Amino acid sequence: MPIRMLLRSLMITWILSSPRLVSLSVPIMNRISYSPSWFLNPDRNPILHRLVRGIFYNHFCAGENAKEVDGTIKSMKKMGFDGVILGYAREILAGKDVAPSGSSKEIVEQWKRGTLETLAMLGPEDFLAIKMTGAGPIAVKAMTKGELPPPVMLEALTEICDQASKQNTRLWIDAEQQVFQRSIDAWTIDLMRKYNRSGKILIYNTLQAYLKGTPKNIAHHLSLAQKEGWGVGIKLVRGAYIMIEERQLIHDNIEDTHVAYNGIVQNLLSRKFPGVSEAEEFPNLQLFLASHNAESVQRGYETWRERRRRGLPTIKLEIGQLQGMADEVSCGLVQIRQQMSSAGIAIPNAEKEWYPRAFKCLCWGSTRECVQFLVRRVVENRGSLDRTKAWLAGLKKELMRRVKSSVRLG
Ligand SMILES: Cc1cc2nc3c(=O)[nH]c(=O)nc-3n(C[C@H](O)[C@H](O)[C@H](O)COP(=O)(O)OP(=O)(O)OC[C@H]3O[C@@H](n4cnc5c(N)ncnc54)[C@H](O)[C@@H]3O)c2cc1C
């Protein structure tokens, strides 16, 4: 990790490890996100812009334009990551009256342009992250009512997926609040049915392990794919909307969420899943572990490696964390590969997948567009203060190690 990044990580993690500073920053960021005032809009008020960028944005976000984002992607790949996931920040939260201006059609068109612009910044094997709510009120209304995607939305999605397929960039659909999720699942299954064919998996759906109903939902995805002969891409997360979600849908405590997450991973890596017929061939499946939890990442990777070593059936596994979060987990994965290379373990091209395939997930957009994304990162840290403190201790240790070694060299 470059020294500049280390120092910035140290500063942000210090802020996030203080419950008082975190409690203070969330309401301020919410005001900044939704206020109609010029003064509170960081895209218009240059002083606020510098402040938000300097404190949080530069740590968690990739940039405000293609040039800045390109620089961030290059630096991630130079550090050894296999690829990146890039998303455009615009989104709508249920109950927040912040619809962008213009007719519904114009808003979908703006979203499509932003998404295609994002796609153009990516290469083969990277991922484009899409938030369906980003397409604005017409999509939100259809999703809330459980309807099919409106024709203008379907056209936009088709254009985006066709372009992704052409350049071999994969595409994942983010999971959002439950009021939208039934439709997001249905729309995404339709895309998988169309694009995940002939052994290729282009489209991934996001499944949230904190929901009690997720194992049943995964079995539904897999059974449909098995019956109809298409492939499933699953990005597995724990879930980020606990603060605003119907609480009874979510596991009663965090331990149950951990057990659910790790159990789903073990089943998927074994190509078996409760509720999916074992009489027929298991569908083509690829798994992306999107988590900052070191234990889940470690367990998932070790199970997968062991199954491969023993010649047991398994699936393609990739792992990723958000930019600015759990850097020691991400860098640990990159290091495993670097140690394998420097130990002279020759790995032929066909076996490249023995490596833990490590990704960083980046978000780009104007400072204001990214504020809700930043709020979720801050809230997430508030929910796991012990871990944030452990990150802080790890970063301090690394800084001290570097200081001592440069003094010794000097
Ligand atoms: C690359 C990437 C992409 C992501 N994309 C999405 C996405 O599309 N949609 C989405 O919703 N989230 C997404 N997330 C966020 C994710 O859902 C988690 O909020 C976040 O990663 C923290 O979970 P963790 O696996 O890192 O584990 P930990 O930090 O160990 O677990 C914290 C999580 O446990 C759960 N939890 C906390 N308290 C309780 C409780 N009392 N009862 C039950 N469960 C509890 C919550 O889900 C909480 O986020 C993404 C995360 C990453 C790394």
UniProtKB/TrEMBL annotation:
Its EC number is 1.5.5.2. Belongs to the proline oxidase family. It catalyses: L-proline + a quinone = (S)-1-pyrroline-5-carboxylate + a quinol + H(+). Residues 1-25 form the signal peptide. Converts proline to delta-1-pyrroline-5-carboxylate. Keywords: FAD, Flavoprotein, Oxidoreductase, Proline metabolism, Signal. This is Proline dehydrogenase. One of its GO terms (molecular function) is FAD binding. Gene3D superfamilies: 3.20.20.220. Residues 72-388 form the Proline dehydrogenase domain. It comes from Oidiodendron maius (strain Zn).
